[in-house]
Every structure is written in structure tokens, then in C-alpha cells.
Design goal:
Helices cover 10% and strands 35% of the residues. The longest helix is centred in the last third of the chain and has 10 residues. It contains 3 helices and 12 strands. Strands 2-3-9-8-5 form a 5-stranded mixed β-barrel. A 3-stranded antiparallel beta sheet has the order 6-7-12, with no helix packed on it. By secondary structure, the chain is mostly beta strands. The chain has one domain: SOS response associated peptidase-like (hypothetical protein yedk fold, Alpha-Beta Complex). The structure holds 4 DNA strands.
Length: 217
DNA sequence: CCAGACGTTGTT
DNA sequence: GTCTGG
DNA sequence: CCAGACGTTGTT
DNA sequence: GTCTGG
């Protein structure tokens, strides 16, 4: 709330801290409501209003910026359902012949990352669920060594405009695809984070250098 | 018209 | 709900 | 994203 | 291989 000058949390108890937010789990999402910014707990993995079951959300965790305006599932959301997912960092798995290594990625300068995202509300009988998907883009040069995609990130200057319903989506998307993301830093972590049930500071501890089988005699 | 999909990543 | 394919 | 299950019949 | 759950 301090960083974003958000006015309040939507739900009474704010989210508990998590070092391992997996798809389907709840994360902090910023939305504009009238003139104020409000934090909402939302499930990661978009469940569109028309979905017949919640399980649709397991597939829609990311949205490619290149095709955002043409995909039927997303194009209507770009107009009025923009939001910002908030976290200190995120994990990306780098592949090599030796296997997959998770990296933890944060900003050198900012205390939090702002992920450009889209949300929707799904209602089925009694229970309503709000959920979101994170927009992805080709990687900034720095991150190309880790992965061939990255989340579309917003600077603190950009995020208010991204949330504003008055802003034209075409312009916002053009800027989003360009934004520099040159302040990102990263380091490898252990595969403790691979198991969704694992949580705590151990998720972001730098990995020991594992000797490869090749180096053992 | 109705039926069926609606998504990304990564691998081959 | 809305789009695509048949 | 990764991990883990993937099934029925019949019994307690 | 593919789907579900976290």
C-alpha cells in the first residue's frame, strides 16, 4: 500500500507473505476503482466469466502480448480489465543439457515488480472468484540467457496509466512491449522452489554450486 | 445456422 | 460472451 | 511453472 | 502422454 499509495485492501485480512506463488494460488493485484487504487487478492490463472468450470484457469496463466488483441479469450479484457500483479520478484527456469535451474529475478532499484495483467470475475452459484493472467513478451537482453519469454513489467511511472480506463489500450500495449526492464537482477536458487508446497525464505536462497557428474572422479 | 473453442510454453 | 470452422 | 496422478470393485 | 492440483 505504501509503494502504490493504494487506498485499501479489498478483503479484510491482507495476504500472508509467500515465497512460492504457484498458478491457482492467490496473489496481490492492484486495480483502479473510481479514483483510488485498491489491492485485491486474486487467483493466478484466468477464469473467464464464461468458463464452465474453474479448471479453465489452469491453462490461462499467461497471455502473449503479440496476440493479445486477436485472441477471443483476452481481447475484450484489454479494454476494461487491466490490472497489476505485485511481487518482489519471480522465478524462471533456465534449461540446459544438465537440467532445469530456477532463477529468482528482482529489480535492482524498485522494491516491487509490477506485472501487467488482465483479470476477470467468475461466478458459479454461491461463490465468485476473481483471477488474473500475466502478459508475456520477448525477453529484455539481460534475461535472454535465462529464458525466451518474460513477464511484461511496468515502471512505477507506467502503472497508473496502465490501470486508467481512460488510456487507449493500443498505446499502452505498444509501450509495454518496448519497456526497458534493464534494472533486473537475478541469481540461481535451489530446486526447493520446484515443489509448490515448499515455502519460506529457503526458496530465494542462492543455490550452492552443484558439481556436475562430469566433474566427479 | 450450430458446435466447439477460447491458452502458453516447450519439445519435436 | 464471442469468435472460428464446418 | 513443477509435481504427481492417471482406476474400479468391494470391503471396512 | 496428458491432466489436475498446488
Amino acid at each position: 500500500m505504501e509503494v502504490f499509495e493504494a487506498s485499501h485492501w479489498d478483503a479484510a485480512p491482507p495476504l500472508a507473505p509467500s515465497y512460492n506463488v504457484a498458478p491457482s494460488q492467490v496473489a496481490a493485484v492492484l486495480r483502479q476503482e473510481n479514483e483510488s487504487q485498491v489491492l485485491h487478492p486474486m487467483h493466478w490463472g484466468l477464469i473467464p466469466r464464461w468458463a464452465k468450470s474453474r479448471s479453465v484457469g489452469y491453462k490461462m496463466i499467461n497471455a502473449r502480448i503479440e496476440t493479445l488483441t486477436t485472441k477471443p479469450a483476452y481481447r475484450s479484457l484489454v479494454q476494461r480489465k487491466r490490472c497489476v500483479a505485485v511481487a518482489q520478484g519471480y522465478y524462471e527456469w533456465q534449461k540446459s543439457p544438465a537440467g532445469k535451474t530456477p532463477f529468482f529475478i528482482t529489480s535492482e532499484r524498485a522494491p516491487l515488480l509490477c506485472f501487467a495483467a488482465l483479470w476477470d470475475r467468475w461466478q458459479h452459484g454461491e461463490n465468485a472468484v476473481s483471477s488474473f493472467t500475466i502478459i508475456t513478451r520477448p525477453p529484455a537482453p539481460k534475461l535472454a540467457q535465462i529464458h525466451n519469454r518474460m513477464p511484461a513489467l511496468l515502471t512505477p511511472q507506467q502503472h497508473k496509466r496502465w490501470l486508467s480506463p481512460a488510456e487507449p489500450p493500443e498505446l499502452l500495449l505498444a509501450e509495454l512491449a518496448q519497456s526497458a526492464s534493464d534494472d533486473l537482477q537475478f541469481y540461481p536458487v535451489s530446486n526447493f522452489v520446484n515443489r509448490p508446497a515448499n515455502n519460506g525464505p529457503r526458496c530465494v536462497e542462492p543455490a550452492h554450486q552443484e558439481p556436475s557428474l562430469f566433474d566427479l572422479h
